[in-house]
Design brief:
Shape: globular
Number of strands: 11
Strand order of the largest sheet: 3-2-1-4-9
Mean pLDDT: 92
Radius of gyration: 20 Å
Number of helices: 9
Structural class: alpha/beta
């Protein structure tokens, strides 16, 4: 999944413009600038809670094409000159967002590379795009789903989980045994990202906008097919083994 999405050699996010009518899906910032206006108002409130520090750094990780950065910057300049003078915005992605002014500090990087941040680490639809471990219940035990090839096609192979956290997290979230054949996912990279964000933040907030559920809901018996979804030309599917590198996962 990480190769399919992020590989410099044909990874989906490295070689496509996925957002918009000609892409594969829409996001809230592309729907209307009001989304950025609302986020800007929340950031200003955070700045006030922290005692109006200057600079107040906003690190947007997974900034994509930079539309949210532009909308926030425009809203702040229009509504709050004092906050605008204190704001230091950093737009970060695997590839530096195009067409952003130098004042928004577009940089190409992974993870959370800054330290000593006083302000806010901001993400929009980042955490649900991190690679996940897939599992399936077989013979009343949790097995991890691996990918192999056979006759030039991808096939799934079940083996012992590579990390005991995968089993422990699922077992801790379920009140009853999951049915045979149950499929699901565990995202360990979200834990690593949050730890890195915590280390980077000296004082302030982490604000994430995303899709999700409680663990109890995520691993309920009713979700026996898992939650992994793919998007291609605004059509949703559950098959990550087709159009590899050309569809969102």
């Amino acid at each position: 999944m990480e190769l399919a999405l992020y590989s410099p050699d044909g990874g989906y996010y490295r070689s496509h413009t996925p957002i918009g009518p000609a892409g594969d899906y829409f996001t809230s910032p592309t729907a209307h600038p009001l989304f950025g206006v609302l986020i800007a108002a929340q950031l200003e409130q955070m700045w006030e809670v922290l005692g109006k520090p200057s600079p107040f750094t906003v690190l947007e990780t997974g900034a994509g094409n930079g539309v949210l950065a532009r909308d926030i910057d425009q809203a702040v300049q229009t509504t709050s000159p004092e906050f605008s003078r204190a704001l230091r915005y950093v737009a970060l992605d695997y590839a530096a967002p195009d067409n952003l002014p130098p004042s928004l500090n577009p940089i190409a990087a992974t993870g959370v590379p800054l330290r000593g941040i006083v302000g806010c680490i901001l993400t929009n639809e980042l955490l649900d795009a991190l690679p996940v471990h897939r599992f399936r219940v077989q013979d009343e035990a949790i097995h991890e789903v691996f990918v192999d090839t056979s006759d030039d096609k991808f096939v799934e192979v079940l083996q012992e989980p590579t990390n005991p956290i995968i089993t422990n997290r699922v077992m801790a979230a379920t009140q009853e045994a999951l049915p045979e054949g149950y499929k699901g996912e565990v995202c360990l990279q979200a834990d690593a990202w949050l730890a890195e964000a915590s280390e980077a933040l000296e004082r302030g907030f982490v604000l994430t906008v995303d899709y999700g559920s409680t663990t109890k809901e995520m691993y309920s018996p009713q979700r026996d097919g898992g939650t992994l979804r793919c998007h291609y030309q605004h059509v949703v599917s559950g098959n990550p083994y087709v159009r590899v590198g050309r569809q969102d996962i």
